[in-house]
Write the structure tokens for this entry.
Amino acid sequence: MDHIVTVQDAVTAFADFMEPTDAELDAIEQEMPLILARVDLLDAQIITLDRTPTELDTRRIRRARRRVLVEGLALVNRTSGTALPGGAA
């Protein structure tokens, strides 16, 4: 009887190629205000899932949406001079 074996090396979660690069960590750092703004918006929307939104809920969602737009615009302005990786236009 022939045994079937894999020819690939074992894959571990701690492989060197799986760690984020310094450039990726810097990109995450730059995007963090936008990420946090989106989390706040999601939190405000989740609160209203099981009930009719009150005036306060409506204002909270509106403020969170506005903050997402402001942070997105700020991110675009901060990164407008940087080149995209891979030669993308």
